Amino acid sequence: MSELILEMKHITKQFPGVLANDDVNLSIEKGEVHTLLGENGAGKSTLMNVLCGLYHPTSGEIWLEGEKVRFSSAKDAMNRGIGMVHQHFMLIPTLTVVENCLIGARSDSILKLDLAGAAQQIKALADEYNMDVDPMAKVSDMPVGARQRAEIIKALFRGAKILILDEPTAVLTPQETEELFNMVRKLTKDGYTVIFISHKLNEVQEISDRITVLRQGKSVTTVKNDNISVNELARLMVGREVDMTVTRHETDQSKAMLTVSYLTLGQKSGNRLLNDVSFEIHKGEIFGIAGVDGNGQGELVECLTGLTRATSGTAIYKDLDLAKSTTREIMKSGVSHIPQDRHKSGLILSMNLAENMILQDYYQPQFGKGALLNWKYINTFTDQLIQDFQVKAPSRFELAQNLSGGNQQKVIIAREVSREPGLLIAMHPTRGVDVGAIEYIHKRIVHERDQGRAVLLVSTELEEVLKLSDRVAVMYEGEIVGIVKPSEVTVEEMGLMMGGKRLAEIR
Amino acid sequence: MDVINILGGLLSSDLRMATPILLGALGLLIMNRAGLINIGCEGIMLVATFVAVAGTYYTHNVWLGMVCAMLVGGLMGLLFAFLTVSLRANQVVVGVAFNTMGAGMSTVLYRMLFGMDFVSVKDYAFTHVSIPVLKDIPLIGDALFHQMPVVYLAFLLVPVVSYFLFRTPAGLNLRSVGENPKAADTLGIDVYKMRYAATIVGCMLMAMGGAFLSTGLLNSFQEDMTANRGFIALAAVIFGRYKPTGVMLATMLFAFGLAVANLLPSINSPIPYNFVTMIPYILTIVVLAGFAGKTVAPAAAGKPYKKG
What we know:
heterodimer, A: alpha/beta, six-stranded mixed β-sheet, 18 helices, 22 strands, B: 1% strand
């Protein structure tokens, strides 16, 4: 068990302007589950891309089974038994599983693609590890959990002995995560080595043999996973004590602010992206929406903010039917929106902070007279928000693209919250930001609730939704399968609902 | 002329007319499947029409003329790949440049070599080859099996390209590069090499089409003689749903328009000539407007890929 299979020594990877890996050391033993723990941007994925031959390190050495190696392409690494399951799946949706497995593979004949033979091998691998994968299924027809299994099969099929799993649980329900872990345990028992990348502390604690912590591109320490507490792991990952508890005050939740009734969004093909979605959000309440990504959450938010027109149904907020209004009308009525993708729709990255701060309300009288903008006021306004919302930026003239993810998110939150909305719609507000920013954003959202605002919080991070929300709805394939109070539900029940079981069926 | 003869002649002329477009479209299809859109097909075909005539004129061999055209097409493909794959230039812009360049270059070079003279390569033209037995099938035998060799070659390429794309490992790799180059890269495929190869082979096929147009169909070069066949080939790829057989049927449909346009004046049709020659182009517009939205193009088509 203590035989070293892989060593990465003094790996440095310099990108233009960013030092992604700075003298990182990592040693992996044969047959272990070794976790790379670190925040977003700590350099975990970069290090693994170096290992699997996609990036060339600026300096440093890789030793595999006692031999120094140099990978010039992914093929080299694969030939030496290193396989990676990327966070964003590297599958081609229009092809079948077996075709995906054969892309770039060595073949006995250049004239004939041996689909049947490969399918048999895949089936055998899948059976051995209790994986439900149909080799002849088209990837675009498969749910996300099955796609991940296909990715793992693909790596094994291509001869991986060291399997790298990059944030594999991000797209899984708790039950699917458990299945994945069982498979990982069986793989390591059979002599495979698994490198597991995650920032979810509970999972790390459950599955790892050893843990290497990365922080700001550097390897901080490697610890054995025995009796190490989640708090201790968090401290190692962030580099300071973290206080993730939020205190919430009693609020008066008697008044309904948003009433959504039978909201439906159909496609030409007949299938429904949203199907009869109904719920109410009250004043002073955080209403959470949980579910695996891509089950209609994005469509719901788009319908409520006027970006997509719902096919039928209503969403009444103060006499206004959001489902039939334009975005401008909705925003004017006192709705604020923190969009799911801060780069695509939250900010204009090539504009500075002052410009980004007024994107929403630039036409309001305080920001300009007639055709001209009132820069004097805009500047003081921006400076005030930068201070109030703890945005770390050199000045208001800094371009949005130069801020870290957490600070970009704070800019959006500042812009949207400072409008003092009656309804705040926040989608994935903490996706891809560091723990410090998560702490702040969580407290801010609860603060807004305590001020008497209604909050719609959409997140795929189960822990986050359960912690912040007063009530939680679970979405599956465009429908709400259950609405529960976090204090009255177990993680198992949540997981079953995220997998499509209705609340009534499991209780 | 009796009806059977007219129909047989129409079919025979359809296949001949379809050949240059089919070759161009197959070239485009191969490039498309590797994630490249080449609007410049027209320009490459046009250069090839000239090179084939000049090559045939000097070598006294129409096949060598075609080889010359294909070599030049391959070089143009190399340039296209260098600009769009290595330098990641916008493929549409480069394609437009190729069209402008093709129109100018073919005319200028022709005048440099031959001045204003009319050069005919009729003496070295492709001969018709009949396939025994099959050519005696009534009605279609003469139309299908008494053709120039290039016509057979073009139509034989349809199953060949189809087999290559969907039945061989290299074809799978090529398609994966066109769908998701990043994924292909993680599986150890050299995306750049693949795209260079597809572009060079594709442009050689387009050039072959251009060469057949001038040396096979007309025996001479005329300015702008491709008359937008390169664009019709682009339309055929979309209408043919990015599959070789579909592309073949689409080119046959468009060529049918050309064949009818050729036939009508000779049977004293009352429709004015100008309207008749519009048929293939109107057909292209109608078909594209009706079907373009319904086909699924390779996901990465037209997008440059940057490694790492």
